[in-house]
Amino acid sequence: MKIKEYKRTYTDEWDFRTSDTKEYTHSYHTYPAMMIPQIARKLIQDYKPKGKLENILDPYMGSGTTLVEAKIQGINAIGTDLNPLARFISSVKTTNFNEGLIEKYFSKTINAIENYKRPQNVDLDHITNVDFWYSKEKAEELYYLTNIINTYPETIRDFFLLALSECVREVSYTRNGEFKRYRIAKEKLHLHNPQTFKLFINKIERNIKGLEDFNKINNKSKVVIADFNTVNEIPKHYIKEGSIDLVVTSPPYGDSKTTVAYGQFSRWANEWFKFENAKKIDNLLMGGTKIKDFTLKTESIKNELKEIKAIDEKRYYEVLSFLDDYYKSITNVSKAIRKEGRICYVVGNRNVKGVQIPLDYFTIEAFETNGFKHIDTFVRSIPNKRMPNKTSPSNKKGANVTTMVNEFIIIMEKI
Ligand SMILES: C[S@@+](CC[C@H](N)C(=O)[O-])C[C@H]1O[C@@H](n2cnc3c(N)ncnc32)[C@H](O)[C@@H]1O
């Protein structure tokens, strides 16, 4: 039987190679696999659903790119993520902080930095292996900054804490350019000498510029930051069935342990700020828990799944666990959308054991099962996407293969 295939449009219209991806508050904080803001912007502008466009949902909001873009265009938005750091970033990026107050407390911070005294009784017991990840000097500097910021008014505190969040990770001994928690090699530790205070000041200055631009534009629309699991039912107090006009999102491509390490990347801030489940994030996310009882049905990728099963049965069940969660989450998202409402999913096709899984086909098939029709899929290359495009499928050094070269922008409509 012929495998289900769907239309793909190859175009450079979505590449945005020379675009500034750090406009407005998009500059505030890095996050693994961030969406290009211009993609969310173009989707919102060019693929409006018929009738009204009054709200946008991002069911895996990450650092809130879609929410920021919705707000810029004056549209109400709701996003959810199980990772507390993602919610924290999204919340700060979509808040119109008072610039005058921020400047005032920035001056206070600089003053406190100029009068730095090593803090006594440093309490960092909540950080796992704190001495392994931080030099005593750097840990004290970060602790000092934390205590200063925690005295600031609640209305502006988070603006400063978010800049600190990036410093907490960058000042640690974690390797630069890695999302995973790998420590710098022992013999190179002495070369790592980040200037904590300078780093922090630079980030605040950068973020103030972003805030100024963000505050200049429309800020009347409402943003809701939620924490529900899209794999389970969407709580009605957040979203009523059939109420969403448009979804713009980039879901994970696989479980966090073998694809993008959201939990490991976020552990620095999640532990530092004592956010809940700091150590468990990767298990909570889609595909994080292995299941044996699958509900998903698929024609579109059944050959690929069969191939993986023949090579490595354990990996096959891991992949299936992710796909099963993803399928359930698509069913829940589908219910939230109104008739003629639209979904825009930006996905990548990962490679498992040398087999490429066409997640775009699977996504379309799952939405079709839930009453949607396919409009188009645009294929773009991803030179500027912030994620590793190489992983080692066999865990052998040097055995890297390219996992993603293209990204697929799927647009569908509820019938
Ligand atoms: C590709 S990232 C989104 C990136 C985002 N578009 C941005 O620009 O930063 C996918 C997100 O899905 C979240 N996630 C994974 N499983 C989830 C679930 N079951 N419910 C809600 N969010 C989930 C992860 O924590 C991660 O932040």
Characterise this structure.
- This protein has helices spanning 37-46, 65-72, 84-93, 99-114, 130-133, 136-149, 154-171, 196-216, 262-272, 281-284, 302-311, 313-336, 359-369; strands at residues 9-10, 55-58, 76-80, 223-226, 244-249, 337-348, 351-352, 355-356, 372-381, 390-391, 401-402, 406-414.
- It has 415 residues and is α/β, with parallel strands linked by helices.
- An eight-stranded mixed β-sheet has the order 1-9-12-6-5-2-3-4, with helices on both faces.
- Helix 4 runs antiparallel to helix 8 (196-216).
- The radius of gyration is 22 Å and the shape is globular.
- The model is unreliable at 384-400 (pLDDT under 50).
- The structure holds S-adenosylmethionine.
- S-adenosylmethionine binds next to loops.
List the helices and strands and how they pair.
Elements: E1 9-10, H1 37-46, E2 55-58, H2 65-72, E3 76-80, H3 84-93, H4 99-114, H5 130-133, H6 136-149, H7 154-171, H8 196-216, E4 223-226, E5 244-249, H9 262-272, H10 281-284, H11 302-311, H12 313-336, E6 337-348, E7 351-352, E8 355-356, H13 359-369, E9 372-381, E10 390-391, E11 401-402, E12 406-414
Parallel strand pairs: 1-9, 2-3, 2-5, 3-4, 5-6
Antiparallel strand pairs: 6-12, 7-8, 9-12, 10-11
In the CATH hierarchy, what is the class of the largest domain? Alpha Beta
Bound chemical compounds: S-adenosylmethionine
Q: What is the CATH topology classification name of the largest domain? A: Rossmann fold
The major β-sheet equals:
8 strands, mixed
Topology, number of strands: 12
**Helical content band:** 25-40%
Mean pLDDT: 92
| Widest beta sheet: strand line-up | 1-9-12-6-5-2-3-4
N- and C-termini, Cα separation: 27 Å
Q: Globular, elongated, flat, extended or rod-shaped: what is the shape?
A: globular
**Rounded radius of gyration (Å):** 22 Å
Low-pLDDT sequence parts: 384-400
Say which CATH homologous superfamily of the largest domain is assigned.
Vaccinia Virus protein VP39
Instruction: Write the H/E string, N to C.
Output: EHEHEHHHHHHEEHHHHEEEHEEEE
Q: What's the domain count?
A: 2
Q: Structural class from helices and strands? A: alpha/beta
CATH architecture of the largest domain: 3-Layer(aba) Sandwich
